[in-house]
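Researcher: Next entry in the queue.
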Amino acid sequence: MLSQRRACLVVGIHRSLARHQSQRGDDSELRERLKEQATEYPRYGYELLHGMLKAEGLVVNEKKTYRIYREEKLQVRRKRRKRLLTRNRVPMPISEGPNQRWSMDCVSDQLVTGRRFRVLNVVDDYSREYIGQIVDTTITG
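Model: Structure for this entry, 141 residues:
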């Protein structure tokens, strides 16, 4: 038989921890009221429910409300994202000759001095020929 002092020393815990007895009170009334409010207000989180319980005089500590909220597995229901309807995509018509469809792209870079510049490229889709390039430090929309 081992003494309590020796057993705590072997396990590596403090003796007061081995003798500690929880002094938690009965939370049944608080639990029931919290469940009622959570079903009545499903979009409210524990913070709003805590405020309502505090107004009723049932609870003082927010951490206690949160602990019971988690133990009862009460969580705010997340709204599901609405899915967009998929539309039938229309394929882009192939150009039959030059100057029927142009594409443009904007590219940016930085000089050694730290100043930024942009290049707007315009290309003919049929002949893959550059129609123009505009280089400037400020190209607005």
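Model: The beta strands are 102-110, 116-124, 130-136.
Researcher: Noted, moving on.
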